[in-house]
Write a structure and sequence with these properties.
The protein is 10% helix and 56% strand. The chain has 343 residues and is mainly beta. A hairpin with a 2-residue loop joins strand 4 and strand 5. The two termini are 37 Å apart.
Length: 343
């Protein structure tokens, strides 16, 4: 959903009001665990704002020709609430941000993302839904004589994805929450082995016409070892590094629409991925903020074709948040869940 400037500011006002009104309610109640390695921010609710460039693009190479298909997005805004073992938030790309409103040359893009994450002592799981409508050919000048400020547009190209990711945190002294939900603080430097399993189902559908268009339905499965380390610097400052290498399979069902009948083909392709992450942050008792950068590479060759899908990107995530005392109704209901699950 794309918002005009005034609407964007109106959207932010309630969250800023909450922060201001609740600031005086904060106390320093906490619990030190794991031989002094972790400080739990007991009964705190974190209100987090972040800005990132995490959106789906597609890059295909075939017979020496490259196609780079991208949405007309440069900056996403996310609002997220974190409490105990639960994170929940959504993001979109407001027009008030620079380079999000160039609709004339690149076309209009609508985007929405919803994410819920559960983080326990040794396990975490992420559920995510994404939807993007409207793409353009980033390297249009390679195929036409149009000017550099105009692009081939795909306004009816839809991307929809459902994703489940889970991982195991081997070292209980490593605070995964300190770099995700920020409901803990890492007090001593340590790291952990973190294997990760991810399943994603995404669809790319050209809905511009009933014939001579395609829809791909892709089921992606990856698994691999990861490692992360939190370096505690002076007092509340820290830096975090991590790496993940995965291998898996992507099963594709490609439907080509025609006047007489639809043609359906299938592919099974070996998928390889690697990811490196570096972050620097401040994690105080009341406020926290930070900047994380991620380098990611995905590669697979399409079966029975000469096409190769490859994507190497650099993502950033700039975030800041505040912790307040949790509302009684939230504390009461989440405590019931913890008791039933013996957390």
């Amino acid at each position: 959903m794309m918002l005009h400037n005034k609407k964007g500011f109106i959207f932010l006002i309630p969250f800023l009001t909450i922060v201001v009104n609740c600031f005086g309610q904060i106390d320093s109640t906490s619990v030190i665990v794991e031989d002094g390695y972790i400080e739990k921010m007991r009964d705190k609710l974190a209100i987090e704002n972040s800005f990132n460039n995490e959106y789906e693009i597609f890059k295909v190479k075939t017979n020496g020709v490259t196609y780079e298909i991208s949405p007309n997005i440069r900056t996403n805004y996310r609002i997220q609430l974190n409490y105990k073992f639960i994170l929940a938030g959504f993001q979109f790309a407001p027009k008030l941000f620079p380079n999000n409103d160039d609709n004339e040359s690149k076309g209009k893009t609508k985007s929405f993302n919803l994410k819920i994450k559960f983080v326990l002592t040794h396990w975490f799981a992420t559920l995510q839904y994404s939807n993007i409508q409207g793409y353009y050919l980033k390297n249009s000048s390679d195929f036409t004589n149009i000017s550099e400020n105009n692009f081939i547009q795909f306004p009816d190209l839809h991307y929809t994805a459902y994703e489940i990711e889970t991982g195991f945190i081997q070292n209980s002294k490593f605070s995964y929450r300190s770099i995700t939900s920020h409901m803990e603080r890492q007090l001593k430097s340590t790291g952990s082995f973190i294997p990760v399993l991810k399943v994603r189902n995404y669809m790319l559908d050209d809905q511009s016409a009933n014939i001579n268009t395609q829809k791909s339905n892709n089921l992606e499965f990856t698994i691999g070892p990861g490692y992360a380390y939190n370096f505690v610097l002076k007092e509340n400052f820290y830096t975090s590094v991590g790496a993940l290498v995965s291998i898996g399979n992507i099963h594709t069902k490609l439907t080509t629409r025609s006047a007489n009948d639809n043609s359906i083909t299938y592919q099974n392709n070996l998928l390889t991925q690697w990811q490196g992450k570096l972050g620097l942050g401040y994690n105080g008792k009341k406020f926290y903020s930070g900047l994380f950068a991620t380098v990611s590479d995905t590669n697979y060759k399409q079966q029975h074709t000469t096409a190769t899908n490859t994507e190497t990107r650099v993502f950033y995530n700039l975030f800041f948040g505040i912790r307040i005392n949790s509302p009684k109704f939230l504390k009461r209901n989440v405590t019931k869940i913890e008791d039933k699950l013996s957390l």
